[in-house]
């Protein structure tokens, strides 16, 4: 009986030992993915910023500039692309809406970002765009891959429509969460005017006729939780200028926007709590269950070997044959 039980335990030990690496290296890359219907919004602020007054074409100090960023999963679009791409795809329709201290629009930048739900690598398909202009992204945007590594990544910049390295600068602790800190610098670059401008009747085409151009630079900073690949915090030191042309008169350039953009406090706490929750789910498949199954398999193997050894223990000595009785003499 003991030997039969030991064989059953041995079978379970092999099963759980084999399940451990399969869960981590086979199941996790296929199960973990960004949901196609995800929706999130974020509010950032630049306090004591500089903003262009288009009425007087002069730069003025303002108490605050607010940037509202939204990401909305487009399920219908993702399902269409999946049919031809043959893999799980996420389509995010995003909008970065900038407003001045009076609540009036300063600029808005819509994007359609298409990427692989598992790896976060860009998927090139019809509709991939920034401000209505088709683009071909290289690298990541908005989110890092699951199990982010301590290395540089290519990060897409929507203003320049190009990708550039975003550098890993070390491990830090942010609000009780261990994070990887990344930083990217985009040098002064000539960029397009937004399709929608804050002055009625003014279009990118009419500005082009004046000879005035728009230039941009930024230092982009992210604090990324490496297990989920989700940023828990972000900042930008953002600057824009208008240069040359008849629009500025005798001036060479004028500041259109300058400010240190930071996430608003209430959104920081919400993001940290959300990432902590998602981190537990990812760790369940990458650490807790694989190691748990491995330890369970080792325990069952030990118990199986113990029972097998007990079943082979020598028994009691065999009884000796009784001597035949000798005949009795008369």
Order of strands in the sheet with most strands = 6-5-4-3-2-1-12-11-10-9-8-7
Classification by helices and strands: alpha+beta
Please give the radius of gyration in angstroms.
Answer: 32 Å
The total of beta strands comes to 12
Helix content: 25-40%
Largest sheet: 12 strands, antiparallel
Per DSSP, what share of the residues sits in E-state strands of 2 or more residues? 35-45%
Count up the helices: 4
Mean pLDDT: 90
Distance between the termini: 55 Å
Coarse shape = elongated
- Please provide the ordered H/E string of secondary-structure elements: HEEHEEEEEEEHEEEH
Low-confidence stretches: none
Could you characterize what this model shows?
The chain has four helices and twelve strands. With 330 residues, it is of the alpha+beta class. Helix 1 runs antiparallel to helix 4.
Brief sketch in words of this structure:
With 330 residues, this protein is of the alpha+beta class.
Keywords:
single chain, 12-stranded antiparallel beta sheet, 4 helices, 39% strand
Secondary-structure topology with pairs:
Layout: H1 2-31, E1 39-53, E2 58-73, H2 75-85, E3 89-99, E4 105-116, E5 129-130, E6 133-134, E7 153-157, E8 162-174, E9 177-191, H3 204-210, E10 213-225, E11 230-243, E12 253-263, H4 265-311
Helix pairs in contact: 1-4
